[in-house]
Amino acid sequence: MNRTRTVSAPALTGLALLTLALTATGPVAAQGAAPKPVTFSAFFADPNANWNGMQDEIGRVITAKTGVTLKAEFAVGSPDEKINLIAASGQYPDLISPKGAGGVLVDAGAMLDLTDLINRYAPNIKRIMGKEFDRMRFSNRDRGIYFIPTNDPIGQTYFDTDAWFKLQLGALKEQKYPQVRTLKDYEKVIATYVKAHPKTPDGRPTIGLSLLADDWRFLISVTNPAFWATGGSDDGEWYIDPKTYKATLHFFRPEEREYFRWLNHMNDIGLLDPESFTQKYDQYLAKIASGRVVGLIDAGWQIGDAVNALKAAGKTEQMYGRFGVTTKPGIRPAYNQPTGFVGGWGIGITKACKDPVAAIKFLDYLASPEGQVLKNWGIKGKHYTVQGSKRVIPAAVLKQKNTNPAAFQRTTGIGNYNISVRYGDGVKDQSGNYYTTTYPEQIIDAYTPAEKAALKAYKARLWNDLLPKASSFQPKAWGAAWSIQVPQDNPLNEFFNKEQDITRRAIPKMILGKPADFDRAYDAFLAELDSKLGKYAVMETELIKDRLKLWGVIK
């Protein structure tokens, strides 16, 4: 590992050139008197096991700059249920990040329209949004801005996209790094390893493939991979026709039937973890952290704590390589398909907030050049230095960050404050440095020797090199269907719970059943979806077209 890493600037994109021209906005405290201390309550629909009450190193600096301390609560279980309870109670936190349930809060009258606050007090948010400003608006019918986008960074370049089909590096190494492009290839690696190692060194059974079906995570590990493996991209439960914008439930795509048939086959031959549909999230993470699970089909952010535990324990060959596996040759996995800026999910200020001006200034500071460097790089002289004109992470700090990422985040706070609009990976500030630390040289430095050996064998520098490039796809004009907030009075709000009642019952049954019964079970599944949910596809199509009108794509 290099002691330090410097970066040569690549050719700048239009956005990067614009960024270089921006004048840095000073800290909040520099605009007048020292900021008045204020504590805001906040609720976040996404969990954060490494949150330290803003008592980490970065949090203390942010409080000194803005006066703000967050008393934060994070969702446990279903975030939508909690959001609905908050909306019904009328007892709102000062700040709230509801993911896809924002429409419930807007229709309950819980949220402030942030348009005037942004125009008056948030120059950094306004500057970053630039031409995308109107994409923050709720809908054509209600053009208020209730949420500042946090899920989708501006100008993001995905240097190391996370493919969801994962295999232990040790299994790949033992088999001399075989080709892994199709489900057949993926299955062969698992089967070969389990046959050679039926038990782990400590005497427990080796698990071939484990899935997670605990609550909403059922979507991530069980059903969403069906569209990734068949050339689709993530529009939640929908497939959107790129020419007509017509929405259909993605399960109706014939190729997805074959994906679920393969899971049925994996169960039939004993390679699917029998606890896949009963285990809880913590049990699943514990299995992964033990090194027992050869194959996973999951998002990196969902298994991150377990993988970090493997790294911290030195079990780097039980960490995972990532592959864009498909049902058959010739399908291009669409992980890198561009969406443009999707907006939608973000953080808002409720009508209960005692000081909305201080709240918007807090969020604006996090969006400022100074704030973004602070939350991504840390404190100058402590977490990074400047050599010449380049920010570099000292070797000792990089070692802490790479060997025990969870402890590093809890202690420093780096990674805890992506709670306002921000620039994405690949965008540079006016000094010519990246705003984030996620760029090729740093990514490669963070790889373990086991990862580097695998990538060398596959003739790649980054795992992303094994996937089709973004430039090979047509951008999705509607962004992503899952990011569209649904007004409370729209019957589509009924759809998700009804659909999940069907899928969570039918899909495990068909996967765990006899192969001879699979087609009959899948036909019954589609028939039930059609009879009970068919009307919602028309509503989703209307919602897609409404967004396209709001964004000026169609009239």
Automatic annotation (TrEMBL):
Signal peptide feature range: 1-30
Signal in keyword set: yes
InterPro entries in UniProt: Bact_solute-bd_prot1, SBP
A Pfam family the protein falls into: SBP_bac_1
Alphabetic keyword roster: Signal
Signal found in the keyword field: yes
SUPFAM superfamilies the UniProt entry points to: Periplasmic binding protein-like II
Gene3D superfamilies per UniProt: Periplasmic binding protein-like II
Record's protein name: ABC transporter substrate-binding protein
The species this protein was found in: Deinococcus knuensis
